[in-house]
Specification:
Number of domains: 1
Largest sheet: 9 strands, mixed
Shape: globular
Helix content: 25-40%
CATH class: Alpha Beta
Number of strands: 11
Number of helices: 12
CATH architecture: Alpha-Beta Barrel
Strand content: 5-15%
CATH topology: TIM Barrel
Distance between the termini: 43 Å
Structural class: alpha/beta
């Protein structure tokens, strides 16, 4: 039994405060141990061999995503959308289909306003990748939600991943990995700040993998207790220099809007809007801001690879 499996066995018997305390102690030790490769891993800057740059000669790509963990987070989604729209941004929201009631009305509002909806696992109980049988059974239900929600993207809870098994999902892209993040339970980073194509060696079909490349909000503000956005800005500046993809995952659950008394797992929403303002002002005209689905479609179509896209991506997605 690995540490990840053990954690999910004992997790129900620990208070949330105790869970966070233990994770915080572990995170502080890991931060010292991995100081040379986090938040920046220099090797991750290597571009793909055939890389020709982003559309319109933009310096880097900028992508915003959100994992909605609970019904509390779902209630904050409108606030998140309003804050982003005010600054000219759009993002994707990933919902857990069978952990809480996912509002169809909210999903429709998001799509109408130019946002994207994705699927975030199935139950968020740590068992999705426990074995092949469990994953295969859950993949069938996940695909049902993908179809019903007209989604093309997926992200696993807790960033667990098995890139071979994910081929069972009817998706255009997956976003369950990262360039470097020693704080995640499954901390095997893909060590790149660019998307990459994952092809099934048996069927030839595949999907685009979109690793997140900016530190997750929970890690930064809840575990490491940072009091500013300096690490976000430092990493963004580095990605911009390298011409990569800056992809951020912020959880509505942890955002404290309207200056209420902060909960155990909350940080000021102003940190997020401050970062968006930094991007907009510091790099005005230099970044390609796009939804994850747009980035993924660009990746399979780049260099006039439409024939490969039609062949390997599920026809329902192409349509």
């Amino acid at each position: 039994m690995d540490l990840k499996d053990f954690y999910y066995i004992v997790k129900p018997f620990m208070s949330r405060r105790m869970q966070i305390f233990l994770r915080r102690q572990l995170a502080l030790r890991k931060r010292k141990k991995h100081a040379s490769t986090w938040p920046v891993s220099a090797d991750a800057a290597t571009p793909p061999p055939d890389w020709r740059g982003w559309p319109d000669n933009k310096r880097f790509a900028f992508v915003l995503t959100h994992d909605v963990e609970t019904v509390i987070g779902q209630a904050k989604c409108i606030d998140v959308m309003n804050a982003e729209e005010k600054l000219g941004f759009r993002s994707s929201f990933n919902f857990v289909p069978e952990r809480y009631f996912v509002s169809e009305i909210l999903r429709r509002i998001m799509v109408k306003r130019g946002f994207e909806v994705g699927v975030h696992g199935l139950k968020h109980d740590g068992k999705l990748y426990k074995n092949k049988e469990i994953f295969a059974e859950r993949a069938k239900r996940i695909n049902q939600y993908i179809k019903a929600w007209h989604a093309v993207g997926f992200r696993s809870p807790a960033m667990h991943h098995n890139l071979d098994w994910i081929h069972q999902l009817d998706i255009l892209y997956d976003a369950s990995t990262f360039d470097t993040d020693p704080f995640e339970p499954q901390s095997d980073g893909v060590n790149t700040i660019f998307p990459f194509y994952v092809r099934n060696e048996f069927t030839g079909r595949g999907y685009v993998e979109l690793p997140y490349t900016l530190v997750q909000d929970f890690t930064l503000f809840i575990l490491l207790r940072e009091k500013n956005i300096d690490i976000w800005k430092r990493k963004l500046d580095w990605i911009a220099e390298q011409g990569g993809m800056a992809l951020l995952n912020v959880h509505p659950d942890y955002l404290n809007f309207h200056r209420r008394k902060a909960g155990l797992e909350e940080f000021p929403a102003e940190f997020y809007t401050e970062f968006l303002t930094y991007v907009k002002t510091q790099y005005r005209g230099e970044y390609w801001h796009a939804l994850p689905r747009t980035i993924a479609r660009f990746w399979v179509n780049r260099d006039n690879q439409q024939e490969r896209y039609e062949q390997y991506v599920p026809k329902s997605i192409v349509a």
